[in-house]
Amino acid sequence: VTVGATAGVSLWPSDSALPEELLRKADVALARAKAESRGDVRFFQPVMDADLRERSLLQNELKQAIANNQIVPYFQPVVDLATGDIRGFEVLARWHHPARGTIPPLTFISFAEDSGLIGDLTFSIIRAALRTARNWSGEPTIAINISQTQLTDPKLADKLLGVLAETGFPPHRFEVEVTENALASDIRMAKFVLHRLKSQGVCISLDDFGTGYSCLGHLAQLPVDKIKIDSSFTRTMRERGQSATIVKLIIGLGRSLGLPVIAEGIETAADAEALLQMGCATAQGYYFSPPVPAGAASELIGRRLGYDMTASA
Ligand code: C2E
Ligand code: CA
Ligand code: CA
Predict the structure, then answer these.
(1) Which protein residue's CA is at the shortest distance from atom 33 of ligand 1?
(2) Is the CB of 29 under 6 A from ligand 1?
(3) What is the pTM for the complete model shown?
(4) Which of the chain's termini has less CB crowding within 10 Å, N or C?
(5) DSSP string of 156-218?
(6) Does ligand 1 have an atom closer than 6 angstroms to the CB of 213?
(7) Is the CB of 231 under 6 A from ligand 1?
(8) pLDDT tens string 117-151
(9) Which of ligand 1's atoms lies nearest the C-alpha of 177?
């Protein structure tokens, strides 16, 4: 048995003269010490209280936002590079805040993960997305993002399959995007969840490939159906030889393993054309369309996005 200790300290009388308040403040300092570096000591500082209040305010606000459907799905098309046809959409969360306007996910997803709200948030978005998209013409696929914390839930697959049944959305049109980092934290559980989803016809995409704990073992061990090349490589591939090499390598890897590859972050016709030349079949990015609300997304269906580019190729 290895015993460790972490301590939070408050001082009498400068922090408070009241015993309860002193204990509360020592507790706040302890929580901070545990979060920052276990086995250490932290003295209470007023800013810790302010941070705590801010977090609990934000947590309440986020809870309300989820309950009131203020967090909505936006849809970014995934396009066939050779024809410009839409193959599917990736669902990306947006918070329509009554006072602060539209808030992007990077500012609230990690908070939702830490505060245990990510499950409610994800399922509320997935339900809304699938209800809207189930009747779209051309039967596009719908891809959703799953967080690391969710992949440790043994019931995740059944919950997702439950939403598909409830909304009447066909599993073969549903895709789940997971990052390699999410897989690495509990590979056995991830394997279990992903196999269960795959057995019901759901497609699994490996997101942000090449940026995390990239491990070819993941491709061999897990039921992966698609690989997504991170935008950090595609956006720099025309200036940096190294990025271009990585992009080519991932496309080649996908081809050898028989896995389709989706390139992310395509902002120009030149990037799209370069990827087509390298043998990449599908892509998404601002060049084709930014993520848009459901109404605008359904209007994109049937159009050939970036077609000018393919005409010149
Ligand atoms: P991601 O899954 O890698 O999503 C791609 C991000 O790239 C999106 O950012 C998208 O808007 C952005 N993007 C698309 N095309 C371009 C382009 O051409 N140029 C540039 N510069 N960016 C482009 P967004 O919507 O801000 O989402 C950021 C991340 O937040 C996502 O990265 C995903 O990891 C996470 N996220 C978004 N929605 C959800 C959600 O519902 N659940 C979970 N767990 N994570 C989500
Ligand atoms: Ca994604
Ligand atoms: Ca990505």
Answers:
(1) 145
(2) no
(3) 0.89
(4) N
(5) HHHHHHHHHHHHT--GGGEEEEEEHHHHHHTHHHHHHHHHHHHHTT-EEEEEEETSSS--HHH
(6) no
(7) yes
(8) 999 999 999 999 999 999 999 999 999 999 989 99
(9) 2
